[in-house]
Amino acid sequence: MANINEIAKMAGVSVATVSRVLNNHKYVSEEKRSAVQKVIDQMDYTPNKSAVDLIRRETRMIGIIIPYNNNQAFDQMLHGVLNASIERDYSVIVLPTKYNKAKELTYLAMLKNKVLDGIIITSRSNDWESIIPYTNYGPVVCCEYTDHPEIGCSYIDRYASYLEVFQYLKVKGHTRVAITRGRGMESISTRQTLDAYNNTFGELPTELHISDCYCVEDGYHAGQQLLSLASRPTAIYANGDEVAGGIYLYAQSMNIKVPQDLAIMGQENQPIGVGLGLSSVDHQLIKVGEQAFELIINKLQHKIEIPYRIIHRSSI
């Protein structure tokens, strides 16, 4: 196979010009670009990516640590990262962890080995003291707030959004409010939800708190459990629109009218919520992902807050 020196000689240009053509550099005349490309096509030349990366000192590849997919929150953040990466001509590698601490650190080590230019963490299992040393090898950005100066973050004020939802439900006359959640108490969002609830209604009764809810089916079962209580809730705040949709479908099957008998609030403004007319808290996670990507490629440690919004529909 031909090498870059032979390509330059056959095209009658310098090696530097061939390098600029291979890297889509804009400061190359059309005449020289055409001559180089013609030889590349004739020789069926493919550049050695590792060599090019070494020359450029970058891979143009970003890693995104994600606990699992098929989750509306993480999928939206990933969607935002992908949107921005296409515009900037970067590749994105998805790094699933299932909240395995060792696997998460293995992925972070890809910065040290120069496999990736940077890593975005959508949700973490390790503490910051374990993560921060890897910032010596490349930028790390997270999708939650942190005051560590080494870590940039693109985040929403989840606590403020939860507090506003609960206060809104209270103003609407609801005092017996149930919630659903995904992960256990190790989740920052779960702790913030409970803190906001306790500050609005007092201590959350155990029977009004359903965990491990991620999809429509989970929501249906949660609705079955909550709405079968002797003293059932008058409102439910679900941790996602799909979960809220499942609750809505169960309520319908039992002739429980929404919102007359039951108010439902979801999260993340998903299509199912739009279709069923469910009120929702939109944390604008696509924008969170897009901003996280911008922080990574610009190697910034800024703290960027993305505003949330509450979508009012007919379920309350």
TrEMBL record:
The keyword Hydrolase does not apply. Residues 2-56 form the HTH lacI-type domain. The keyword Transcription regulation applies. InterPro entries: HTH_LacI, Lambda_DNA-bd_dom_sf, Peripla_BP/Lac1_sug-bd_dom, Peripla_BP_I. Gene3D superfamilies: 3.40.50.2300, lambda repressor-like DNA-binding domains. CDD domains: HTH_LacI (cd01392), PBP1_CcpB-like (cd06286). Keywords: DNA-binding, Transcription, Transcription regulation. GO terms for molecular function: DNA-binding transcription factor activity; transcription cis-regulatory region binding. PANTHER family: CATABOLITE CONTROL PROTEIN B (PTHR30146:SF105), LACI-RELATED TRANSCRIPTIONAL REPRESSOR (PTHR30146). This is LacI family transcriptional regulator. It comes from Paenibacillus antarcticus.
